[in-house]
Design a protein that fits this description.
single chain, alpha/beta, five-stranded parallel beta sheet, 50% helix, elongated, Prk_AAA, Serine protein kinase PrkA, protein kinase activity, PrkA_C
Length: 690
C-alpha cells in the first residue's frame, strides 16, 4: 500500500487484524477446561507470564559480558527501535531484573519480593519499566501470551436482592477461571496439567476467590444443592483478558501524591458508596475494587518514586509482597497475583537505607541497580537515538561530536583509578573496549576497584544523558539560529561548559571537577582532530602499503635472525632497527616491549596467510595507525600549518583537496574547514613550541 492513501476500510481491517479473534467471544467453563489441558500456559501466574514474555521477543547472549540481552530492550521491534537501550551496565541490570522474575516464576522466593529499580535520575529505569508494561500489553494480545478471566451472569435469577444493574459482574480481580474450582478439585486439574508440561516452572494456584465472587459462589451453590457444574454452566462465561494500562486492567502505575494525605485505599480499594444503600456496609458486593493492587492483578504493578511514600504507607506493601494478599479496611483479605516493581532515585534510597524502622520493608525488596552507561560510544548512541526520534533541523553532526559528549558524561560517572599508570580518560577508553593487545590494563580489576570505591556502585552518580542530550539540542538550535549547518564538538563543549552551573541536579561541589573533566575531553578531541587532519594531509594508501611491506620484511628477518635484501643495492643486510623503531615509537611501544609487538604482528600475518588472505597493513588497526603517523612525520615539514588557519594563505586547490579528504571521513565542508583550522593552529603551536 506504499504511496497510496489508506481508506477507512483499510484502517478498519488493520485494526481488526491486530486484535485477538476471540476478544469479544464468551466461552463456557467446559471450553476453558479443555483449552487449559491442551495448553497449560494459559493458567500461568503473573511472574511466569512476564518471564516468558521477555524470552518471547528474543534474546542474544553476550559471551564477553556473560549477559543475556533481551531484544525487546536492545532492538524494540514494537516501536521500530525508538526505545532501544544501550550500554553493558544497563543490559546487565535488565538481565538481573529478568532473572529475579524468572526465579519468582519457579517459586524460589522473588515472587514474594518487590523488584526495586534503583538508580540516578535519567538512568533509564523508568523508561525500562514503561517499556516492560507496553510489551506485556502486546504479549497478552498474542496467542502465546493469552489469558482468560470470567464473568458472573444471570445473578438476578437466583440472588433476589441483587441490583438489576449488577446482573452481570466481571470478576472484580480478573482472576483466572481455575479459581472457580474448589481447592481440592483444582489441585486434581493442576496435577494433570503439570504431568507433561514442558516448562522451567510448574503451574500452581492456591488463591481464594475474591470476596464478591465468593459471595456469588456460596449463594449459587446453595441454590443448586452444591451442584458445581450447574453453577458454572448457568452463571459463568469465560472471556479473553488483555492487559491495558489505560483501562487499569492487569497493568497499573502508582504515583505518590500529597505525602501528608496518603490513603491506603488508593492501593487496596474502598467502599463503593453508591452500593451501600443497596447492599449494606458489610456486604462484599458494596466494595469497590479500584485500588492499584486490585487493578494490577494478573500483571504488573509499577510504583513510581516508591520510597517517597510515608513509612506507614509502605507497610501495605509488606503483605502485598510477602503474603501476596491485601487487607482493605473493614473487608476480608484479597489474594493478589502480580509482579510488583518499584522505582526510586538515590537520595530517597540513602535516606531510607539507614532507617531501622524500614528493616521489614527492605527485607522484602530485591534491589536492582540501574546505573548510567559507562561506555562512551554506547552513550553516544543514546544521543543518536534522541536525534532519530526528533524532528532535527537540517544540520550535519560532525565526527566525534556525540562521542566526546559521551566521554564527558562517562568521566563524571566512573571512579578515578588508584594506579598512577592509567589516567581517568584511559580508564574510560578501557571500559569502551579500546585496548590494544600490548596494553597492560586489567579491565575486570578496574571495574572491581570502581565498585569497591563507589558509594553504592560505579555509574550511580554523575551527569545524566538527559542533561547532555538537552545541551546537544540547545547547541543544534543555536547553530540553526546562527545559520550554521553543522554541529561540532567545539560548539557542544561551549554549551556544556556554560550550563553546568545552571543545572539543578549537579551539586555545586562537583562543578570544579566537572570543568576539569571537560578540559580532559577537549584535549582528547584535539588529538582526534589532529589525527583526522593528519589522515587528510598525509594519507597515501600506496605509500602505507609499501612501508607496511617493508616493515614486515624487516620484522620477519628480525624474528628469524635472518637478513633482508636492500631495496637500492640488492645486497643482503641486517634488519633496519632504526626503521622498525621509527614505526613502533608512533604507538609508544617501549624498547623492552618491541619483541612482543613484532611477534604479535608476525602471528597476525601468519594467521591470515593460513586463511588465504594476503597481507594488507590497512587491516591491522595498530600497524595502520603507526604507519600513518610515521608517514605524517616524514611529510609534515613540507606543510605550512600556520597557513591552514587562514584561507587566504593557502592555495585553493590544495585546500579543497584536503577538505575533500575530510569530507570522505564524514565531515561536512564547513565542518572540515573548522577542524582544519583548529588542528592546524594546534599543530603549528606544538611545532613552534618544539
Amino acid at each position: 500500500m506504499t504511496g497510496e492513501i489508506e481508506t477507512l476500510a483499510d484502517l478498519s481491517k488493520h485494526y481488526r487484524d491486530s486484535v485477538p479473534a476471540d476478544l469479544r467471544e464468551a466461552k463456557s467453563f467446559e471450553w476453558y477446561l479443555e483449552e487449559v489441558y491442551a495448553d497449560p500456559k494459559i493458567a500461568r501466574n503473573a511472574h511466569q507470564r512476564v518471564a516468558d514474555m521477555f524470552d518471547f521477543y528474543g534474546t542474544r547472549y553476550d559471551e564477553d559480558a556473560g549477559v543475556v540481552e533481551y531484544l525487546m530492550a536492545s532492538e524494540d521491534s514494537l516501536h521500530d527501535g525508538e526505545n532501544v537501550f544501550y550500554g553493558r551496565e544497563v543490559h546487565e541490570s535488565i538481565h538481573e531484573f529478568v532473572n529475579k522474575v524468572k526465579s519468582g516464576a519457579r517459586g524460589l522466593g522473588p515472587e514474594k519480593r518487590i523488584k526495586l529499580l534503583l538508580g540516578p535520575v535519567g538512568s533509564g529505569k523508568s523508561h525500562f519499566d514503561w517499556l516492560t508494561r507496553r510489551y506485556f500489553e502486546d504479549y497478552t494480545m498474542r496467542d502465546e501470551g493469552r489469558m482468560y478471566t470470567f464473568r458472573w451472569t444471570n445473578l438476578g435469577d437466583v440472588i433476589r436482592d441483587q441490583d438489576p444493574s449488577d446482573n452481570v459482574v466481571q470478576s472484580p480481580m480478573n482472576q483466572d477461571p481455575i479459581v472457580l474450582l474448589p481447592q481440592e478439585q483444582r489441585d486434581i486439574v493442576i496435577e494433570r496439567l503439570n504431568e507433561n508440561f514442558d516448562a522451567p516452572y510448574t503451574i500452581r494456584n492456591d488463591q481464594a476467590l475474591d470476596p464478591a465472587s465468593e459471595f456469588f459462589m456460596d449463594r449459587l451453590l446453595a441454590h443448586y444443592d452444591d451442584d458445581l457444574e450447574s453453577v458454572l454452566e448457568n452463571h459463568i462465561e469465560i472471556i479473553r483478558l488483555v492487559a491495558s494500562e489505560n483501562k487499569r486492567q492487569c497493568v497499573e502505575t502508582f504515583e505518590p501524591k500529597d505525602k501528608k494525605n496518603q490513603d491506603e485505599t488508593e492501593l487496596t480499594g474502598d467502599v463503593n458508596y453508591s452500593k451501600l444503600a443497596v447492599y449494606g456496609e458489610s456486604d462484599p458486593r458494596a466494595f469497590d475494587y479500584a485500588g492499584a493492587f486490585c487493578n494490577a492483578n494478573r500483571g504488573i504493578f509499577s510504583g513510581e518514586e516508591l520510597l517517597k511514600l510515608q513509612r506507614e504507607f509502605l507497610y501495605d506493601f509488606l503483605h502485598a509482597s510477602q503474603e501476596q494478599t491485601i487487607k482493605p479496611k473493614n473487608n476480608p483479605r484479597i489474594d493478589i497475583d502480580q509482579v510488583i516493581v518499584g522505582r526510586t532515585n538515590m537520595p530517597e534510597y540513602r535516606e531510607k537505607k539507614g532507617d531501622e524502622k524500614m528493616e521489614a520493608f527492605n527485607d522484602r525488596t530485591k534491589r536492582i541497580d540501574f546505573p548510567y552507561v559507562l561506555e562512551y560510544e554506547q552513550e553516544a548512541e543514546i544521543y543518536r537515538k534522541m536525534l532519530r526520534n526528533a524532528d532535527v533541523p537540517d544540520i550535519h553532526v560532525e565526527p566525534h561530536t556525540l562521542e566526546m559528549s559521551g566521554l564527558f558524561g562517562v568521566l563524571t560517572r566512573i571512579v578515578e583509578p588508584d594506579s598512577d599508570t592509567i589516567t581517568l580518560v584511559q580508564k574510560a577508553k578501557a571500559y569502551n573496549g579500546e585496548l590494544d593487545d600490548g596494553d597492560d590494563v586489567d579491565v575486570r580489576k578496574l571495574r572491581e576497584e570502581g565498585e569497591s570505591k563507589a558509594d553504592i556502585a560505579e555509574g550511580m552518580d554523575g551527569v545524566s544523558a538527559r542533561f547532555i542530550g538537552d545541551e546537544i539540542a540547545e547547541a543544534i538550535m543555536d547553530a540553526t539560529h546562527r545559520g550554521r549547518k553543522y554541529l561540532s564538538p567545539l560548539s557542544s563543549f561551549t554549551h556544556l561548559e556554560e550550563n553546568l552551573e545552571n543545572h539543578g541536579s549537579i551539586p555545586e561541589e562537583n562543578l570544579e571537577r566537572y570543568h576539569r573533566y571537560l578540559e580532559m575531553v577537549r584535549e582528547e578531541y584535539k588529538e582526534r582532530a589532529i589525527e583526522d587532519v593528519r589522515h587528510a594531509l598525509a594519507y597515501d594508501i600506496d605509500e602505507i602499503r609499501r612501508q607496511g611491506e617493508k616493515y614486515m620484511d624487516h620484522v620477519m628477518a628480525y624474528i628469524d635472525d635472518a637478513t633482508v635484501e636492500d631495496e637500492l643495492t640488492g645486497r643482503d643486510q641486517e634488519p633496519d632497527e632504526k626503521f622498525l623503531r621509527a614505526v613502533e615509537e608512533k604507538l609508544n611501544i617501549p624498547e623492552d616491549r618491541k619483541d612482543d609487538f613484532r611477534q604479535e604482528v608476525s602471528n597476525w600475518v601468519s594467521r591470515r596467510a593460513r586463511e588465504g588472505t594476503s597481507f594488507n597493513p590497512q587491516d591491522n588497526d595498530r600497524l595502520r595507525r603507526a604507519l600513518e603517523r610515521k608517514l605524517w612525520e616524514d611529510k609534515k615539514h613540507n606543510i605550512n600549518f600556520s597557513a591552514l588557519v587562514s584561507a587566504n594563505e593557502l592555495d585553493d586547490d590544495e585546500r579543497n583537496a584536503w577538505i575533500d579528504a575530510l569530507v570522505d571521513q564524514g565531515y561536512s565542508r564547513d565542518g572540515a574547514r573548522e577542524v582544519l583550522e583548529f588542528a592546524g593552529a594546534e599543530v603549528a603551536k606544538s611545532e613552534l613550541e618544539g
